[in-house]
From TrEMBL:
Coiled coil: none annotated. This is Magnesium transporter MgtE. It comes from Halobacillus naozhouensis. It is a multi-pass membrane protein. It is found in: Cell membrane; Membrane. The gene is mgtE. Keywords: CBS domain, Cell membrane, Magnesium, Membrane, Metal-binding, Transmembrane, Transmembrane helix, Transport. Residues 142-205, 206-262 form the CBS domain. Belongs to the SLC41A transporter family.
């Protein structure tokens, strides 16, 4: 099944639409169900509401469920609002439990209660068990649809059990082994099950070195674990090591995208990345808090320059270099910030050590500061024919770059130490802070050089 581009999808949809409008149900189903669920989801998102309502009548809850699993959860509320409540409850019941929970977390609480009341008891109980876990934890993204075998089973018994349970399981590449108390004691791959002798016991073949995660673990740490171990699935346990569920790699890909988007928005100084569907007022509401904070910090920069008004009156040419020094401080601080935030997010800083990272950034700041300082000293000297002005600007650039680099790396580390998301040390924030530092350094040195400049 090939991936369709937008034009191909429109062409296929035209054929499907003709069958739909001519009430050719069999042809519609044959054409529509031939598509990959991702392409089906894209069609759902693009068609008019009345067309979508007609499609619901031609598809089963199970078929619609597969489509809904490929629609962004944050955009899915209108689809479940337009469905008949009983049909919507059946769709949720047919979905993977973790996907159903993600969708219900986006819906109104009264709707959630209504859907859970309508759907069959078994599906409702499984969903309720996951709904009470805190968002962004392992429990909130795990699925309970997995296959387990007992250590005392033979390979033959395990294979028979696997055949019975596989249709409803999220994945069968790993089969987890539990003891009589439902504690996780091992794992066996599908490959090992296939190549083992039928009369061997699971306990003789399984691996006892099982990497698992607690149910309350942060989803970002889960993503890091699965990346480090190259897992397709990760078992989730409670404090007594009872197996509660598994997290599969497809869910972790969604988590990684979500976390990356969240960190990027914070680095940009906004609470969340704007959606193309949002209006100007919603976007402005997200951006205003940071901008107001930065406005007051910027006012502090302006007031600092005002305090050095006498210095500027005596040597007016000093004003020319303010944007240069402030801009360089902001640039180098943002670079160091990006390195520090990424190191914290990926866990690299914990492996290398914070002191090592700080020393490296200090060295980087020193090298870049000296290099840029020497260059600008020569430029200013040949431009203004004043060696003292060149030395002032050069030393200011050098000092500013060293301090700004250290600030860019230290601020996220301090925030992380106090359990504050380091991404909130955003680019605009660190740039404004470094503006203040650079102005203090520049005019402080200018005051010291005053007798040589006049």
């Amino acid at each position: 099944m090939e991936h369709l581009d937008d034009q191909e999808r429109r062409d296929v949809w035209q054929t499907i639409q003709d069958a739909l409008f001519n009430d050719q149900i069999d042809q519609f189903r044959a054409e529509f169900l031939e598509l990959h669920p991702y392409d089906q989801a894209k069609i759902f998102e693009e068609v008019a509401d009345d067309v979508r309502m007609q499609i619901y009548t031609y598809l089963s809850p199970d078929e619609v469920a597969e489509v809904m699993e490929h629609i962004d959860y944050e955009e899915i509320e209108p689809f479940f609002s337009e469905m008949d409540p009983r049909f919507a409850a059946q769709v949720l019941a047919e979905m993977s439990t973790d996907d159903a929970v993600d969708i219900l977390n986006e819906l109104d609480k009264n709707k959630v209660a209504s859907f859970l009341t309508i759907m069959d008891d078994e599906a409702a109980e499984e969903i309720k068990d996951l709904l009470h876990y805190e968002e962004k934890t392992a429990g909130s993204i795990m699925t309970t649809e997995f296959v387990v075998v007992k250590a005392g089973m033979t390979i033959r018994e395990a294979m028979l059990h696997l055949r019975q349970e596989a249709p409803d399981a999220e994945t069968i590449y790993y089969t987890y082994v539990i003891d009589e108390d439902k504690r996780l004691v091992g794992v066996i791959s599908l490959r090992d099950l296939i190549i083992s002798e039928e009369d061997w016991f699971i306990s003789d073949v399984m691996s006892e070195r099982v990497v698992s995660a607690p149910v309350g673990e942060d989803q970002e740490e889960i993503a890091r674990m699965m990346r480090d171990y190259d897992f397709l699935a990760l078992p989730i346990i409670d404090f007594q090591e009872h197996l509660l569920g598994i997290i599969t790699v497809d869910d972790i890909m969604d988590v990684m995208e979500e976390e990356a988007s969240e960190d990027y928005s914070k680095l940009a100084g906004i609470s969340d990345v704007d959606s193309p569907d949002e209006n100007a007022f919603v976007s402005a509401k997200k951006r205003l808090p940071w901008l107001v904070i930065l406005l007051f910090l910027g006012s502090l920069t302006a007031s600092l320059i005002g305090r050095f008004e006498d210095t500027l009156d005596k040597v007016a040419i000093l004003a020319i270099f303010i944007p240069l020094i402030a801009g360089m401080a902001g640039n180098t601080g943002t670079q160091a910030l990006a390195v520090a935030v990424r190191g914290i997010a990926t866990g690299e800083i914990d492996k290398q050590g914070k002191l090592k990272m700080i020393m490296r950034e200090a060295g980087t700041g020193l090298i870049t500061g000296v290099s840029c300082g020497v260059i600008i000293t020569l430029v200013v000297y040949f431009w203004q024919n004043n060696i003292y002005l060149g030395l002032l600007v050069g030393l200011s650039i050098m000092s500013t770059l060293i301090v700004a680099t250290l600030a860019g790396s230290l601020v996220p580390l301090v925030m992380h130490r106090f359990n504050i998301d380091p991404a909130v040390a955003s680019g605009p924030f660190i740039t404004t802070i470094n503006d203040i530092i650079s102005i203090l350094i520049y005019f402080g040195m200018a005051t010291a050089f005053m007798s040589l400049l006049i």
